């Protein structure tokens, strides 16, 4: 018997092992295909991740040129790179210890880049002030979320810290909360109303939780993951009012802020709304807002970078935050550099501007066109309904699974949506996420598809899904 | 009153605020010098970090070329890079999702690189078997240590989990342990015997702790930080025997494994010794061994990368480990790529071999010569004694501080070594680490200097330190 077996047993149950099993099976089928095994499809298409480059979108040239030059400064003396790339790289290297991206940085990040991020936020929010002291660059927004949870999730005492978290949600957040010893207080987004966040549901969830745990915070994802809704200013105001009344810390996951596809919607940050509401809200509601280089048109998941901005935190708490973040030493320097580019992209007149703006527009156009195609194709299929995808990089359609398929899933010990996703993978080589991984209202079933992929790949995904879906329904009807 | 103030107050006391104050003061003086303030020195030299590039050592050309090519594959078609760089980069890109280093990887790392690391370990250990399933690539060894602590440090119940940890030590480890809710059980390295790790001291520490906490693990650092000792095979055997008898999990921090300066010493890994001891040890003692790209001749602190190898963990626990590491999504891809180079550096006959081997030898020679100079110069000063620096990248000399200086430090509310370091900084612009940050035996005082720096910088450090030290002694005698 291992020394550790008992001590760590609490952890294993947190993860949905069914999604892990799907991913493993996808890898296995890929290996078999490579070994020459014959199947009715040539390759596996995995759209279960939110990983734009894996799905075939290209990195931005300016980003990669600047980072490559910072890594290997000999490139600065060659003709290979445009002059604005060289200037940017030289400037950034001057901010690195010993002029090398291989040096540690300050805990919160390279001061110049933290300043850039602060200017970016202020500009985004129509001149709402932003202070570099409140910003920490991190190893990605997932890491930021975990750090912030450590601030207020208590492990002592008999009553657990609760955090209101949406259903459906970003599953890592709930895992992180659970590992930290906290408990998720689920509130349901209203699917029939385009996954709207409703304050009466927040209130129901909060009051149901009180007594069982100590709810201290409210986690919101805007634009939604996996649900694709974009909150209106009015909706954000209502949520802020609720957080103020109930003394909840607001955790605003805004990593899809540059991915809004519906021209009638715009992204408005929680911070902007909070400030524009004025006192007492603007001076009292505690907020952490998260952003990342992994999403939007950057898509640099593998380079790990993000930031968190805190609002209205007590200076003593900010001291604790500093201590907490210092435990990671510092964020990866190249992720920091990409944040600098996100904050200050090439401007008209710069040599790299034409290519940069064209690449960004191409990605935005691809996403917008994928959204249209997904909605058209899914809308035409019987037994599937999909709320409008206004933002983000996912579709999260509801499946109306025939009762005898549900029965067969039960007999196989599987969630019905995992049963569906598993057969979809076996029969067509298409790997999607199962709704049960994200949470869904009792009796409903969903799948999650990443839409950040080239048009032709999206078409192939929709073809495989349509063909399978019709055959599945006919088989089980 | 902030919502969070009370909840997070436990955290703030963990960090030595005195070291933070020294670093802040160094930054302030640097800024003042840049603004034209006149002082008896032109610049601040900060040798309080263990950050080779910041100290002026250069990154390895092959490493930077491969990583730059992976980031910006257009370089692969140019004449700028040697052919072995191009081949390596192409091979590594083929292992990345969508051929981009911007994609997430598997939780444990890119499988091909995990395999490389496993081969490296096996080769290092004279063919002791290593299995890729037991290796996780991480965001650096500090992150690995934190993750591993999560496995067995319990936050529930009334008795805290204890971990035996050396004095002096790597302070982040003790901070991480404390944040996790565990408690450090200090064992003292024997300074008079070259910072030897003695089993009777481990035994004393363990028995003193039992009843107060539940000691579950033993943390060792070999080669030592900040103490520079290199453990003999015999010493490691004794420690393993002790861990087996007392059922302690062994945490072997071996990040300085390629930095052994004394030709009479060699680095032997805990895993190698464990396997060569045979059963019952080789099949029962639980071990985690840590390595990093931040140390040795790579020195790539800012790119964040390391790995941990587990030995003899129960398969159920390994499942929990997988879940824990999946919380970080994956390690930074470029850090992973550098681990691949660490595992399989250029070989004789490769175009990059001459430069690579020359750069590595130059760094090793610089460190060896710095060790000689530090020992010669400090050995000649009254009131300083320094144990032999056999490995690692630090000197940790003991200061014999005059009683009236100790008295004055007390009156200023400072530790005597912080008082010394603070005056050293003010008077000469040299910033060193204070021994109290690392822990030291009652009544002794030390400073920590990084020796991973170019020769001329080391000379300047020693000049400033010698001049100050003599004047300090004469002032307070």
Structure at a glance:
The structure is a homodimer of 477-residue chains. By secondary structure, chain A is of the alpha/beta class.
Could you characterize what this model shows?
- Chains A, B: GO terms for molecular function: L-alanine:2-oxoglutarate aminotransferase activity; pyridoxal phosphate binding.
- Chains A, B: Homodimer.
- Chains A, B: InterPro entries: ALAT1/2-like, Aminotransferase_I/II_large, PyrdxlP-dep_Trfase, PyrdxlP-dep_Trfase_major, PyrdxlP-dep_Trfase_small.
- Chains A, B: Its EC number is 2.6.1.2.
- In chain A, 53% of the residues are buried.
- In chain A, strands 2-8-7-6-5-3-4 form a seven-stranded mixed beta sheet, sandwiched between helices. In chain A, strands 9, 10, 11, 13 and 14 form a five-stranded antiparallel beta sheet that branches.
- In chain A, 46% of the residues lie in helices and 13% in strands.
- Chain A is globular.
- The first copy, chain A, has two domains: 13-57 and 357-476, Aspartate Aminotransferase, domain 1 (Alpha-Beta Complex), CATH 3.90.1150; 104-343, Type I PLP-dependent aspartate aminotransferase-like (Major domain) (Aspartate Aminotransferase, domain 2).
- With 477 residues, chain A is of the alpha/beta class.
- At the A-B interface, helix 1, helix 3, helix 6, helix 7 and helix 12 of A face helix 1, helix 3, helix 6, helix 7 and helix 12 of B.
């Amino acid at each position: 018997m291992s020394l550790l077996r008992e001590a760590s047993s609490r952890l294993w149950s947190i993860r949905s092992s069914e999604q892990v099993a799907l991913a493993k099976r996808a890898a296995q089928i890929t290996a078999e295909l490579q070994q020459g095994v014959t199947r009715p499809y040539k390759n596996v298409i995995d759209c279960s991740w939110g990983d734009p480059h894996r799905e075939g979108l290209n990195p931005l040239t300016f980003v990669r040129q600047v980072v490559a030059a910072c890594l290997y400064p000999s490139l600065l003396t060659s003709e290979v790179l445009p002059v604005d790339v060289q200037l940017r790289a030289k400037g950034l290297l001057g901010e690195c210890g010993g002029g090398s991206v291989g040096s540690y940085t300050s805990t919160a990040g390279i001061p110049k880049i933290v300043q850039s991020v602060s200017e970016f936020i202020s500009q985004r929010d129509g001149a709402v002030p932003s202070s570099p002291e409140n910003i920490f660059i991190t190893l990605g927004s997932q890491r930021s979320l975990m750090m912030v949870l450590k601030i207020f999730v208590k492990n002592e005492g008999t009553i657990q810290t609760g955090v209101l978290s949406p259903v459906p949600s970003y599953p890592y957040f709930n895992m992180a909360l659970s590992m930290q010893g906290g408990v998720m207080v689920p509130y349901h987004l209203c699917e029939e109303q385009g996954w709207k966040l409703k304050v009466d549901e927040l209130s129901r969830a909060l009051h149901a939780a009180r007594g069982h745990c100590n709810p201290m915070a409210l986690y919101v994802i805007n634009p939604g993951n996996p649900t694709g809704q974009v909150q209106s200013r009015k909706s954000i105001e209502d949520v802020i009012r609720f957080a103020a009344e109930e003394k909840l810390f607001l955790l605003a996951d805004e990593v899809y802020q540059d991915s809004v596809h519906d021209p009638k919607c715009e992204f408005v940050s929680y911070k902007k709304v909070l400030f524009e509401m004025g006192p007492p809200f603007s001076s009292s509601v505690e907020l952490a807002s998260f952003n990342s280089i992994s999403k939007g048109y950057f898509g640099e998941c593998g380079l790990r970078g993000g930031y968190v901005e805190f609002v209205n935190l007590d200076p003593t708490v900010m001291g604790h935050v500093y201590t907490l973040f210092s435990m990671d030493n510092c964020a990866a320097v190249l992720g920091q550099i990409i944040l600098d580019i996100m904050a200050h992209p090439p401007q008209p007149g710069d040599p790299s501007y034409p290519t940069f703006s064209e690449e960004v527009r191409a990605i935005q156009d691809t996403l917008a066109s994928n959204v249209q195609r997904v909605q058209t194709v899914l809308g035409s299929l019987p037994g599937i309904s999909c709320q409008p995808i206004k933002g983000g990089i996912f579709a999260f359609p509801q499946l109306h699974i025939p009762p005898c398929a549900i029965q067969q899933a039960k007999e196989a010990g599987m969630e019905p949506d995992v049963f569906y996703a598993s057969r979809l993978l076996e029969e067509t080589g298409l790997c999607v996420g199962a709704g049960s991984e994200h949470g869904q209202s009792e009796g409903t079933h969903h799948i999650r598809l990443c839409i950040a992929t080239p048009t032709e790949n999206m078409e192939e995904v929709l073809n495989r899904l349509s063909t399978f879906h019709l055959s599945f329904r006919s088989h089980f009807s």
